[in-house]
Amino acid sequence: MKLVGIVGTNSSESTNRRLLQYMKQHYSEQAEIEICEIDEIPVFDEPEDKTAPQAVQVLSDKIAASDGVIFATPEYDHSIPAVLKNAIEWLSYTTRPLINKPVMIIGASLGALGTSRAQAHLRQILEAPELKALIMPNVEYLLGRALEAFDDNGNMVYEDKAKELDNDFTEFLSFVKLTEKLTANSKFFEISKQFSWKQVANGEDM
User: Fold this and answer.
1) Based on the number of CB atoms within 10 Å of its own CB, is 133 exposed (0-12), middle (13-18) or buried (19 or more)?
2) 14 in a domain, yes or no?
3) Is residue 9 in a domain?
4) CA-CA-CA-CA torsion sign (28, 16, 129, 63)
5) Is 189 within a domain?
6) Is the pTM of the predicted complex or chain greater than 0.70?
């Protein structure tokens, strides 16, 4: 199984990157996880021709070729970082690779509470009509005190959180397989790819 892990920040010292790196190494026998950065994506400017910049197109192609996506988001001011929202806006406006794509949301933070508000906001965003990702339900992986969570070899030192992630990741792999069966040759999921706010504004049937 091929998965894409998106680092939801442009910070060079991100604990969310370390979390994805841990998953890439720890679950290497279960899935191939490619970690993708968003720091080179330009500021969204709504181009009239809806052409994606090169950095956006590269990310989009990787998402499209994957079986599922893992978003690792920090929490800034009770929400997701602006740089992550910016990247998602580009994908929504141009290539739309997240439609019908299985998604797992995780998050690491320096404090004890994790990233629950940011994850809730990210779920709302990814369920928008022009994104329409298939988000794994009933799972909210929150890694608090993330600076102390990994040893020098990148292994997670919190045994309870490591076990929780094992269970969540196993569920996600099952979720990916299930959604693949549901979306295969389904007219409902094919129609969802054709959504357009302009058509809605004009009163056209989707």
Assistant:
1) buried
2) yes
3) yes
4) negative
5) yes
6) yes
Banded model confidence at residue 183, pLDDT cuts 50, 70, 90: confident
Q: Looking at residue 44, which CATH number applies to its domain? A: 3.40.50.360
Of 144, 19, 30, 146, whose CA–CA distance to 71 is shortest? 19
Which residues neighbour 166 within 8 Å (Cβ) at sequence distance 6 or greater? none
Query: Residue 185 has what pLDDT?
Result: 67
Domain count, the chain: 1
Angle at 147 between CA 141 and CA 150, to 5 degrees: 75
- Torsions phi, psi of 101, nearest 5? -95, 125
The three-point CA angle 90-118-122 to 5° equals 40
* Overall average pLDDT of the 48-53 stretch: 93
How far is 172 from 195, CA to CA, in rounded Å?
27
Contact 135, 123 (CB under 8 A): yes
pLDDT value at position 161? 98
Instruction: Tell me which residue of 74, 58, 63, 75 sits closest to 100, measured CA to CA.
Output: 63
Token digits of residue 51: 């052409």
pLDDT for 205 = 52
Dihedral of CA 23/83/62/194: which sign? positive
C-alpha closest to that of 36 among 83, 4, 72, 10: 4
Residues 120-135, mean pLDDT to the nearest whole number: 96
CA 165 from chain centre, in angstroms, equals 16
Q: Within a domain: residue 74?
A: yes
